[in-house]
Amino acid sequence: MTDVIFENCNLSNANLQNGLIYRVSFKDCKLLGVNFSEAGLSNVTFENCQAGLCNFVDTTLKTVIFDHTSLKGTTFANSQFKNPVFNACDLDDAYIGECPLKGIDISSCSYDRINVDLKHLAGCIVSPQQAIGFARLLGLVIKS
C-alpha cells in the first residue's frame, strides 16, 4: 500500500503479513488483532486507533507514529525501530521483546504492566514514575 488514508475503518483481524506499507495513515480505525508480522512500515501514522492485540513480530517500522492509540496486548517482538513516535498511547500488557529501545520515548504513554527485555531497555526515555517501575524490576527497593 502506498499513499492510502484509512479513516473510520474496521480492519480488525486483517492479515497484512509481509506487506509493504508506505505513506499510509490510519485515523480513528479499529485495528484489533491485525497481523503486521514481517511487514515493512515506513512513514505510517496511527492516530486515535484501537490497535490492541496487533502482531508486529519481525516488523520494520521506520518513521512510524502512534498517536493517542491503544496498543493493549500488542506484540513488537524482534522488531526494528527507526525514528518511532509513541505519543500518549496505551501500552498496557504490550510485549516489546528483542527490540533495542535506545532513544525511544514512551514517557507520555500509560500502562499498568509492560513486557520488555531489561537488556534492551538502556537509553529508553521514560517518565520519573515509569523509571521507578523499571527500577523495581531490577530488584531495587525504592525508599521514600
Overview of the structural elements:
7% of the residues lie in helices and 28% in strands. It is mainly beta. The protein has one helix at residues 128-137; strands at 2-7, 20-27, 40-47, 60-67, 80-82, 85-87, 95-96, 115-116. Strands 1, 2, 3, 4, 5 and 6 form a 6-stranded parallel sheet that branches. The protein has a two-stranded parallel sheet with strand order 7-8. It has one domain (2-137): 3 Solenoid (Pectate Lyase C-like), CATH 2.160.20.80. The protein is built from 1 helix and 8 strands. The mean pLDDT is 96. This is Pentapeptide repeat-containing protein. It comes from Sporolactobacillus putidus. InterPro entries: 5peptide_repeat, PA_immunity-related.
Summarize the structure.
By secondary structure, this protein is mainly beta.
The CATH topology? Pectate Lyase C-like
**Count of discrete domains:** 1
* Averaged pLDDT: 96
Tell me the CATH architecture: 3 Solenoid
How would you sum up the major sheet?
6 strands, parallel
Category by helix and strand content: mainly beta
Q: Give the uncertain stretches in residue-range form.
A: none
DSSP strand tally: 8
What general form does the structure show?
elongated
How large, in whole angstroms, is the Cα Rg?
Answer: 15 Å
Q: How many DSSP helices?
A: 1
Query: CATH-wise, what's the superfamily?
Result: E3 ubiquitin-protein ligase SopA
Strand content: 25-35%
Under CATH at level 1, the class stands as Mainly Beta
Strand-and-helix sequence, N→C?
EEEEEEEEH
Can you give the helix content as a percent range?
under 10%
Pfam family, one: Pentapeptide_4
Organism: Sporolactobacillus putidus
InterPro entries: 5peptide_repeat, PA_immunity-related
Protein name: Pentapeptide repeat-containing protein
